[in-house]
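anyone seen this seq b4? input:
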Amino acid sequence: MTFRKITVSQITARIPDELVAELDKAASRLHRSRAEIVRHAIERYLEDFHDLSLALERLQDPNDPVLDWEAVRDEVVGSD
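predicted toks r here
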């Protein structure tokens, strides 16, 4: 089994006290550290950001055909 070395950086962020209190509640209920929850939240945010960026790229692609909703619906469910 080969292990890959993972480098870790430390960052500092200013967060409102109310948000820190909610973070602490979540960390306690989940039996996780603040760092684990923040890391997971950032990972999820970046996944969503990537997905949205890709979707916007595709929507703005002039070579991507525009589909007619009525035609697609009829093809999928059949027309009456």
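DSSP finds three helices and no strands in the chain. Residues 17-62 form one domain. kinda curious what u guys think
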